[in-house]
Amino acid sequence: MGTPISSAVVALSLGLWCASAQQNPYASPQDIRAAEPNYQLHCAFCHGRGDDGMAANLKSPRLPHAPSDAAMFQVIQNGITGTDMPPSIGLGEKEIWQLVAYVRSLARLAPEPVQGNPRLGEQLFWGAGNCGTCHMVSGRGGRQGPDLTEAGDKRSAGNLRQSLLDPEASIAGGFLLVNLATRDGRKITGARLNENTFSIQVRDFFDKIHSLRKADLSELKKEAGKSTMPSYRHLAGSDLDNLVAYLVSLRGGP
Known about the structure:
- This protein is an alpha+beta fold.
- It has helices at 7-20, 29-42, 44-47, 69-78, 93-107, 118-126, 151-154, 157-165, 237-249, and strands at 136-137, 140-141, 177-182, 187-195, 199-204, 209-213, 217-223.
- A hairpin with a 2-residue loop joins strand 1 (136-137) and strand 2 (140-141).
- The termini are far apart.
């Protein structure tokens, strides 16, 4: 008679099999409804209703980090190293699969209509709008603000429009504005790149990186909720529509 297999081993084996499968085993309408409370508890703070939060636009049919259900399972379970996406805590495998189904259901909702001409918006972005001074698209542009190469995949049209009208409504991670003064009289303003107990690294508005010991500073002021990006409220309605249309069109291509 063989050795009995514990229920824990069976559950672990089933979970590993499910995580390696492409097909979600918990994707029924009942599973999707069951996932909503967990979404609100664990995901909504960053992702909002899917397309109006600070994090990736989950209503996009193309999620770069989660091209398959199995990949999304791993993202929810383990987080994404080097980003603000943390691993899940307190969620079982079935609950994670249900969250995968819930997120996929968001992408099936009717997309938000986008007015405007992307070609004219591109001209404005690189021309009179001066956006390329601070933002990069496919390797072209500045690095003072977030890279917008995949803006259309990561953010909704409404979220992008809000950022243009009110840049301080949501500050992207990694772009905390800081003002520094050194003991020898230098003053530096820029985006904080890294910080620990003893040092801080800042990229200034001339794209120069400063690595400074805190012992050499006479002032370190962190401007939480502040942005150097100007509001684009002055744009005519058609120009704003065109700029939003261009940003929505950016999905990682050249």
